[in-house]
Amino acid sequence: MVNDWWDTKGPARCLHQLCDLRIEFLKRFFSLGGKKILDIGCGGGIFSEALWKQGAFVSGTDTCEDSLKQARSHAHYSNAHITYELPKYFYTYAQPFEVLLFMEVLEHIECLYDTLRNWLTLLSPGGYLIGSTINRTTASYFKAIIAAERVLRWIPSGTHDWHRFIQPKELNVLCQELGCIGWLQQGYKYSFFRSQKWNFCQETDTNFFFLVRKPFSDLNKKDLFLTNISDCKNL
User: Which residue range is the domain that position 87 belongs to?
Assistant: First the structure.
């Protein structure tokens, strides 16, 4: 996918199609104009640029240097003012972000608890932790792996490991253990017969958005976060 991030008919086409729905979900809670956002697992910068076009101050990070190179190249072509750096660049970042995004990322992370705990140090009090991921159900195995990877071949085979999918209730508990407050989830699905291919739905058996917030006061919660964010080797 490294050379195909911006091919709207290539392996990343679903991510291009998802941009409008993601924007719509975020706008339910705040205006994007002027919001300071870190797009974690940004890949080639598809959603980062969509956020920038909405007036947000965007930074993107990914562990793949080749993806970041393509993100920077396309941002230069689009005259988009976005900071793209490897995670280590943000380990000592001075100014906190108002929003941390994990869009289609958590299902690829090995040490999920430590990953979220580390990145939360960069979120300002009252800030939003928002993402989208895949539920671990029988339905998701057939839709996200059998159908999307092996039959329709929307994404390369082997992209997903079903055992890394996380159920909403599990993610909710994990976020609470990290000191986050609130929980909101929203299902969404692919629609073959609609012009907008991805749409909100009641079901969360496969894809779902989630949202929590960091408390406005971090008092008595400092022990929840690692003092050295570089301890975690994953995103």
Answer: 13-225
Q: By the 8 A CB rule, do 211 and 182 touch?
A: yes
By CB atoms closer than 10 A (0-12, 13-18, 19+), residue 151 is exposed
Assigned domain for 4 exists: no
Is 144 domain-assigned?
Answer: yes
Residue 56 lies in a domain: yes
Residue 96 is given by DSSP the state: P
What is the tens place of the pLDDT at every residue in 73-116? 999 999 999 999 999 999 888 789 999 999 999 999 989 999 99
Other residues' Cβ atoms within 10 Å of the Cβ of residue 225: 15
Q: How many residues are present in the chain?
A: 235
Indicate the number of domains in the chain: 1
pLDDT digits 0-9 by tens, 117-174: 999 999 999 999 999 999 999 999 999 999 988 998 888 888 889 999 999 999 999 9
Q: Which amino acid does the sequence have at 142?
A: F
CATH number of the CATH domain containing 41: 3.40.50.150
